[in-house]
Design the sequence.
């Protein structure tokens, strides 16, 4: 009740006020937004409009006009609609409108809200009483409406529960099409729910740093010995940006970097994109061109598979040989054909300065040493505005080496 | 029998200086013709060996026994159990062992050190020229049986003897003169220092030695762990394996290891912390630190940078001597178990009458019988033939012994119940010691891989041609058709080894079991080569199966040989020995068939594929990955 009152007070102070029903008692007087306001809201959420592009009947839509877009106000509006009159006229249109505006209120992942919408439907009225009714979609408009609601749940990955089954049963009976849809959903959705090899926490954190950590951790699963560090550029005296750096590197990569010839340059490449749910994180790689000589050596060493006369036996409990390392090394997962990747990072600003800080911090924390090795920037896509600001306007945003001579003189 | 007959023949031949005769003896009758190159090489080798044999009074070496199992060959002659200690020497030996037996039966603990020295335990295997007893392999193993009643004590003596063995084999004359008399008297106690606490990721050892060309000496730096040390005040000699870099060979190719003899009283040698061990607590194991220890060239054993080549001799000795400790412990466990089951009554039934107890006791007996036969058979081969290759036999002996020892020690817990693990109880001590022995030196899984790889190495050299043909069927249709047409199956292999001819007729079915098992091993090896080529070294689970197969076969082989000898000369309870050998063979045949079938059916049928897939998830999740069984999903 408190929730409702609160919401009503808010609505009272709306800009444009139109009376919706003349016979509504004063306490239940509501102000619904004009269509103009609705249009504005539609423009803002172009995507949503496209998805639920069914032509809506000309019913005034309270959701577009609501000033406080929270779950509480949303539920209050649903409750008001329920209590408005016994017939609940236009409830299908109301549900469609409610569905459309869910993302505005940030409730599109909330099961409780969907249940509240289903609860708007009258109980018992739509239950078919004979075979023909049940097979020929009794009350098709209403059934289709709830099917669309379920469809939207599915699209947003909201899994129904058993209470919803009971509600649907009360509204449409056990032969109802929404219930069939529900059952199909309950078959597939649990199976897909945990299928991701890189599951995200149930509530993906909102903080960009946390999301960046998640992203780097996920990319680092390629090598189980990887370690993800979070650095603060504050640690360095001469860094311009004050930001964080999430850096992922493994022991193996440190070793590869140690063995890297100082004659060959290292490149910081990026930004590349990784999507964590609906958030995009830019990340950069520290890489060098593939060590063609070493890879060729490995190829050479792929001796004749058929020759079994040269099997080596290890000594003193040493690890038993693998085919390719009988003489030396195996190829690490970081040594790809198109380059060797030494580390990845995501920074708070994605600027050149923060990347330079990254290199220095790696050195500071003893993860790598870059003496003598030239480190070049190579920005592949649109450089963030700030990067241009720092590095000067001459930075080309193309595939060319960004600053061929910006190597270790900086540090 | 064979000993006297053949040695007389050798003498005759030697007198005549008949080259043909030598070759006649050295070529084993059951060998297939090899490729020309191999034959030439082998011929040269055998000439050398024959010369060595003449010098030491031993017979020329035969083809390796267990290695040849991998190629489906057997040496029937070796079914005669070796009698390497002549009758008169055996009587002397037994007389000499009397005081040892008495001493260890009485359990005197005070002034143990001096007692051990007086009993001459430190010099059992030192040659008589250097004031030792001069026992050979079999005799010195027999002589160390009494002391093995005290596992901790035996560990210390064992490592001492291993160093002595190596010194006798590799040491120069000066080194032998310098060290052996002191080692024999116990003034100097030797110990191996090979293992390290944290071995480096891609080197042999973290302990490094560098040659200083100006001062003509080596500088040793690093630390070794798990070194058995004598009580304080005792001078010690450490046999240290250190990593060295070959001069003029850069990088990983020049990486090698070298064996050094380091005196504990030298500058820079420091005893570190003691390890608190799980079992064998009376033996003190410590770390040893070497800080720029200067070593002269006389302290280098063998040639520099050849440590890996000598490693085989080193581990052979420690494997054999280690097995003996295990066998004696297993015997003691069985003895206690037997008397416990006789003495205990539960609900009016004696424990010994329960079928479960009886099966358990017999299984333990069978394994002990097999391990004992294997040990003395291997030692006998070493004593009888000059330069005989027993790499595989010695590692199998250790592998089988320790595996079975741990089984016996842990299975007795089920029989005894909770009282078995009371602190200070015999059983608790036995289990602890068994576990300790299992971790001593090399782990059992690496040992099993060593066994399989050694066998595959040998087999690969001999089967290379055939494998190449099988792997390229379209180029060699004849070879493949021949394979298709052969009626040899895993269940019913065709063999013509005629092993039964060299055994007592009662053991004919046992001999049949061995023949079939050897044939199955050969077929499994052939299949693995054909399937994987030289990637076979990555198939570790299959290799472990191979190791188990060949261990079982060698256990069957030596038990049958021993039982046949015992029965023919009528030793006490020889009929039960026959029964034991038959039991081992029957059990062994089934085990081998099961393992070979697993190899034959491939990784999709034998579950390997599932296990490997699971493992990658376990490492990804860094442990157990399944959620709680009562978790809800919605």
Sequence:
């Amino acid at each position: 009740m408190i929730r409702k009152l609160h919401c009503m007070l808010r609505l009272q102070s709306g800009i444009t006020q139109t009376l919706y029903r003349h016979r509504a008692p004063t306490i239940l007087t509501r102000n619904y937004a004009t269509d103009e306001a609705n249009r504005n809201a539609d423009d803002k959420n172009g995507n949503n409009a496209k998805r639920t592009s069914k032509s809506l009947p000309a019913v005034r839509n309270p959701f577009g006009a609501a000033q406080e877009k929270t779950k509480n106000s949303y539920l209050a509006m649903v409750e008001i609609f329920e209590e408005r009159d016994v017939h609940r006229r236009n409830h299908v249109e109301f549900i469609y409108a409610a569905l459309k505006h869910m993302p505005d209120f940030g409730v599109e992942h909330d099961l409780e809200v969907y249940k509240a919408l289903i609860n708007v439907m009258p109980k018992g009225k739509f239950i078919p009483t004979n075979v023909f009714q049940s097979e020929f979609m009794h009350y098709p408009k209403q059934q289709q409406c709830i099917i669309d609601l379920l469809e939207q749940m599915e699209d947003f990955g909201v899994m129904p529960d058993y209470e919803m089954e009971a509600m649907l049963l009360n509204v449409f009976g056990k032969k109802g099409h929404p219930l069939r849809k529900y059952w199909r959903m309950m078959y597939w959705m649990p199976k897909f729910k945990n299928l991701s090899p890189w599951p995200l926490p149930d509530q993906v954190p909102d903080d960009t740093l946390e999301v960046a950590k998640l992203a780097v951790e996920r990319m680092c699963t390629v090598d189980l010995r990887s370690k993800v560090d979070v650095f603060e550029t504050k640690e360095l005296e001469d860094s311009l940006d004050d930001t964080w750096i999430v850096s992922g590197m493994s022991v193996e990569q440190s070793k590869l970097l140690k063995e890297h010839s100082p004659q060959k340059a290292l490149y910081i490449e990026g930004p590349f994109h990784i999507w964590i749910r609906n958030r995009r994180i830019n990340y950069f790689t520290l890489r060098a061109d593939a060590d063609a000589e070493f890879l060729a050596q490995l190829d050479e060493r792929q001796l004749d598979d058929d020759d079994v006369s040269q099997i080596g036996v290890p000594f003193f409990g040493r690890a038993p040989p693998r085919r390719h390392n009988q003489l030396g090394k195996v190829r690490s997962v970081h040594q790809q054909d198109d380059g060797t990747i030494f580390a990845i990072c995501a920074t708070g600003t994605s600027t050149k300065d923060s990347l330079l800080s990254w290199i220095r911090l790696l050195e500071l924390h003893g993860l790598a040493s870059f003496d003598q090795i030239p480190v070049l920037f190579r920005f592949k896509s649109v450089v963030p505005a700030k990067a241009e600001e720092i590095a000067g306007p001459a930075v080309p945003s193309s595939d060319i080496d960004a600053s061929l001579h910006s190597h270790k003189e900086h540090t | 029998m064979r000993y006297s007959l053949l040695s007389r023949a050798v003498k005759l031949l030697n007198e005549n200086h008949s080259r043909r005769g030598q070759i006649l003896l050295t070529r084993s009758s059951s060998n297939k013709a090899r490729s020309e190159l191999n034959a030439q090489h082998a011929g040269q080798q055998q000439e050398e060996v024959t010369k060595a044999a003449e010098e030491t009074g031993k017979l020329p070496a035969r083809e390796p026994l267990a290695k040849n199992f991998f190629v489906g060959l057997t040496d029937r002659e070796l079914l005669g159990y070796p009698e390497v200690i002549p009758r008169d020497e055996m009587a002397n030996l037994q007389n000499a062992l009397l005081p040892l037996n008495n001493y260890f039966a009485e359990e005197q603990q005070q002034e143990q050190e001096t007692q051990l020295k007086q009993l001459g335990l430190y010099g059992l295997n030192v040659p008589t020229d250097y004031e030792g007893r001069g026992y050979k392999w079999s005799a010195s193993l027999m002589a160390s049986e009494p002391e093995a009643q005290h596992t901790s004590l035996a560990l210390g003596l064992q490592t001492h003897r291993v160093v002595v063995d190596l010194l006798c084999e590799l040491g120069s004359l000066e080194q032998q003169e310098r060290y052996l008399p002191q080692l024999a008297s116990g003034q100097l106690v030797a110990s191996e220092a090979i293992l390290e606490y944290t071995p480096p990721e891609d080197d042999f050892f973290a302990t490094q030695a560098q040659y200083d060309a100006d001062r003509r000496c080596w500088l040793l730096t690093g630390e070794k762990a798990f070194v058995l040390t004598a009580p304080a005040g005792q001078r010690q000699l450490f046999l240290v394996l250190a990593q060295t870099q070959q001069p003029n060979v850069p990088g990983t190719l020049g990486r090698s290891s070298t064996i050094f003899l380091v005196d504990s009283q030298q500058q820079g040698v420091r005893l570190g912390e003691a390890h608190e061990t799980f079992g064998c607590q009376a033996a003190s194991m410590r770390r040893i630190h070497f800080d720029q220890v200067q070593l002269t060239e006389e302290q280098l054993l063998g040639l520099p940078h050849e440590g890996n080549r000598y490693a085989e001799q080193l581990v052979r000795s420690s494997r054999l001597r280690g097995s003996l400790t295990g066998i004696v412990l297993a015997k003691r466990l069985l003895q206690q178990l037997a008397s416990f089951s006789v003495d205990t009554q539960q609900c009016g039934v004696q424990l010994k009458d329960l079928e479960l107890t009886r099966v358990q006791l017999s299984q333990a007996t069978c394994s002990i019988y097999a391990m004992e036969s294997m040990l003395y058979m291997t030692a006998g081969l070493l004593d009888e033939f000059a330069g005989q290759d027993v790499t595989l036999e010695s590692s199998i002996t250790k592998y089988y012994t320790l595996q079975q020892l741990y089984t016996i020690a842990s299975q007795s817990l089920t029989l005894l119940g909770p009282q078995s693990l009371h602190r200070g109880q015999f059983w608790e001590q036995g289990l602890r010691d068994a576990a300790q022995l299992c971790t001593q030196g090399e782990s059992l899984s690496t040992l099993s891989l060593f066994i399989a790889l050694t066998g595959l190495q040998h087999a690969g050299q001999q089967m290379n041609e055939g494998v190449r043909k099988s792997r390229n069927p379209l180029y060699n249709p004849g070879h493949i058709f021949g394979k298709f047409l052969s009626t040899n199956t895993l269940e019913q292999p065709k063999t013509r080894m005629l092993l039964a001819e060299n055994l007592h007729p009662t053991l004919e079915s046992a001999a049949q079991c061995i023949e079939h098992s050897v044939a199955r091993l050969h077929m499994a090896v052939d299949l693995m080569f054909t399937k994987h080529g030289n990637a076979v070294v990555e198939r570790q689970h299959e290799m472990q199966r191979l190791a188990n197969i060949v261990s079982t076969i060698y256990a069957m082989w030596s038990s049958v040989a021993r039982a046949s000898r015992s029965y023919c000369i009528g030793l006490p309870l020889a009929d039960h020995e026959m029964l034991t050998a038959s039991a081992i063979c029957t059990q062994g045949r089934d085990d081998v068939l099961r393992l070979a079938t697993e190899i034959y059916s491939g990784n999709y049928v034998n579950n390997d594929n599932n296990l490997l897939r699971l493992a990658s998830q376990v490492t990804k999740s860094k442990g157990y990955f399944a959620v709680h069984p009562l978790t809800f999903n919605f």
Summary: Chain A touches chain B at residues 159-161, 186, 189-190, 193-194, 221, 224, 303-318, 320-323, 326, 328 (CB under 8 Å). Confidence is low (pLDDT under 50) at residues 5-53, 394-411 of chain A. The beta strands of chain A are 226-232, 244-250, 266-276, 279-288, 335-336, 339-347, 375-379.
